[in-house]
């Protein structure tokens, strides 16, 4: 088992009440006015990515982009949101940051997880 990343995520399909499997996710860090790729992965069979990016990251602004369009297309389901981007501030370099996504074809929600 690989060590847990500093930033992790979980995607739940709120319509089915099941984990959203094989959602593409990209993690980036903002440096000045530019975004730099840190990592990309797909959610596992439990809708999770525990190894997204490095084990430690510096304080700053980050964004996670979820490829929700491909997820819904694979299920032959129309969606209003072909991608979801969440921008967040990482302030405590010693803390773990979990950024979950509750997803449906026409709505989404997120929160600071644990």
From TrEMBL:
Substrate binds at residues 10, 48, 111. Keywords: Hydrolase, Purine metabolism. Residues 2-113 form the Transthyretin/hydroxyisourate hydrolase domain. PROSITE patterns: TRANSTHYRETIN_1. CDD domains: TLP_HIUase. GO terms for biological process: purine nucleobase metabolic process. It catalyses: 5-hydroxyisourate + H2O = 5-hydroxy-2-oxo-4-ureido-2,5-dihydro-1H-imidazole-5-carboxylate + H(+). It is an enzyme of class 3 (hydrolase). SUPFAM superfamilies: Transthyretin (synonym: prealbumin). Gene3D superfamilies: Transthyretin/hydroxyisourate hydrolase domain. Homotetramer. Catalyzes the hydrolysis of 5-hydroxyisourate (HIU) to 2-oxo-4-hydroxy-4-carboxy-5-ureidoimidazoline (OHCU). This is 5-hydroxyisourate hydrolase. It comes from Cryobacterium arcticum.
């Amino acid at each position: 088992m690989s060590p847990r990343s500093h930033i992790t995520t979980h995607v739940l399909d709120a319509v089915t009440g099941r984990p959203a499997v094989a959602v593409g996710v990209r993690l980036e860090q903002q440096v000045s006015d530019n975004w730099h790729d840190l990592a990309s992965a797909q959610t596992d069979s439990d809708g999770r990515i525990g190894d997204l990016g490095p084990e430690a990251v510096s304080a700053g602004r980050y964004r996670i982009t979820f490829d929700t369009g491909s997820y819904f297309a694979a299920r032959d389901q129309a969606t209003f949101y072909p991608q979801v981007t969440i921008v967040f501030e990482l302030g405590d370099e010693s803390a773990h940051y979990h950024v979950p996504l509750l997803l449906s074809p026409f709505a989404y929600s997120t929160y600071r997880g644990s």
